[in-house]
Amino acid sequence: MRKIKIKNMDDFAKVCGVSRPTISKFFYDPHSIRKSIKNKIELSLEKYDYYPNFYAINQNRELTKNIGIVVPYLADPFFAEIARNLERKCITAGYTPTLFSSHGEQALENNILDTLRSLKPAGVLFAPLGRYSDKMKIEKFCKNVPTILFDSNIEDLGAAFVGSENYSFITQTVEYLNSTGKSPYFFEMRNPANPNANKRRNAYLKIMKKLKLNPEIIKIEGKGWNFEEIAKNGALKLLRQNSIHSDTILCSNDRLAIGFLSACHEMGVKVGKTKDCDLRVASNDDHPYSRFTSPSLTTSAHDYESVSNKAVQILFELIENGGKLKKRQETLYSAKLVVRDSA
Predict the structure, then answer these.
(1) Is the peptide bond before 288 cis (omega within 30 degrees of 0)?
(2) Which of 12, 116, 256, 292 sits CB 3.0–4.6 Å from 231 for a disulfide?
(3) Alpha carbon separation from 188 to 17, 50, 67, 328 (Å, rounded)
(4) Which architecture does CATH list for 66-164+304-334?
(5) What is the pLDDT of residues 325-337, one digit of tens each?
(6) Under a CB-based contact definition with an 8 Å cutoff, are residues 303 and 85 in contact?
C-alpha cells in the first residue's frame, strides 16, 4: 500500500478527520482542545510521521510562540552559558527559542535583526555588540519587536536592560588583591571587542583613585574575539622583555587571563598565592572554564541565574502587556568574588 504523503496542515487535517482550525489550535496549545480529539491527532502524527513547519505557521499569526536570542559571539563561553540559561527558561515557559550569533560583526548583527522581523517573534532577548552596533538600526527594530537588552546596555533602547554591574567586578578584585598583597596592574586589549571592556577600565581607575593607589594599565595589541591567543602573545612579549614591573595582574576578563596563564606556563613563570610564586593573576567573569585552569583562576563571577531569570521575566511581562511597559527598566546585578589558587 502506497504511503500517504502529507505536504501541509490541510492534508494532515483531512487524514485526521479533524477540522483545519482544530489542528491549528492543537499545535498552538494541545490542552485547548478535547482530550479525545487531542489523542486522535497525536496518533495521526505518529502514523503519518508529520511535523509542521512552525516558522511558516507563525508567520501567519499576529503573536507567535517564537523567542529570538541574540549574542555577539557564541564561541565565547560566557555568552554560551547565559544563552543556555535563557533557552531553557523559554522552553520551560512553552516558547520556541532561536539562537543567533553576530560573530562580532555589525553587518551580521543587522542581518539577524532583519531575519527576526521576518519571523515575527513574540519577543527578543538581545545582547548587542555595543559601541560597534548600528544604533539607528536597533532603535527601529525595538520599536517594532518587543525587545529586552542584556549584558550590553544601549541607552534608551529596548523596553528594559538586565546585566551585571561592572564596577562591582573590579571593586571586589582590586580590594581583595590590595588587601592580600600589592595593588594590581590592569591587563587589557588596546582595542577591545567586548562591549564592557571600557567600563571595566574606568572602574579600575575609579577604585584605584578611591584607594589612593597609582593605577597602571598594560595595553596589548590585537583585534577581534580571539582573546586567549591575543593575551598569550601579548604576555609572552612582555615576559620576554621583562617589562611587567609588578607581581600582581588583574585581567579585564577571564579569557584574557587564560591566555596570560598560558604564557606564564610557557615561560616558566609560577603563578599563585604562595610565597614561592612569581606572580598573582586575577580576573573577572567566572568563565565556565576558569575553575579548571592551572592554577585555578581567582575571579569575580557573574550571577548568570539572576540575569537570565530577570531578563526572561521582564520579556514575558512585556509580551503579556502587548509589547509595552510603563517605563524602561534597568536591572544590574553585583558580581561575587571567587577566590581560587591564582591569587
Answers:
(1) no
(2) 256
(3) 65, 53, 35, 32
(4) 3-Layer(aba) Sandwich (3.40)
(5) 989 999 999 999 9
(6) no
Show the low-confidence residues of the chain (pLDDT under 70).
Answer: 1-3, 28-29, 51-63
Give the residue extent of every domain in the chain.
9-52, 66-164+304-334, 166-301
Residue 322: per-residue pLDDT: 84
pLDDT for 63: 59
Residue 178 contacts residue 144 (beta carbons within 8 Å):
no
Which CATH code, of 3.40.50.11890, 3.40.50.2300, 3.40.50.1820, 3.40.50.720, is assigned to 166-301?
3.40.50.2300
53 Cβ contact partners less than 8 Å away, ≥ 6 residues apart: none
Provide the 3-class DSSP secondary structure of residue 256.
helix
CB 68 within 8 A of CB 100: yes
- In the sheet that holds 66-71, the strands lie side by side as 96-101, 66-71, 123-126, 147-150, 160-164, 329-333
Which amino acid does the sequence have at 141? F
Q: Using CA atoms, how far apart are residues 249 and 92, in angstroms rounded to an integer? A: 42
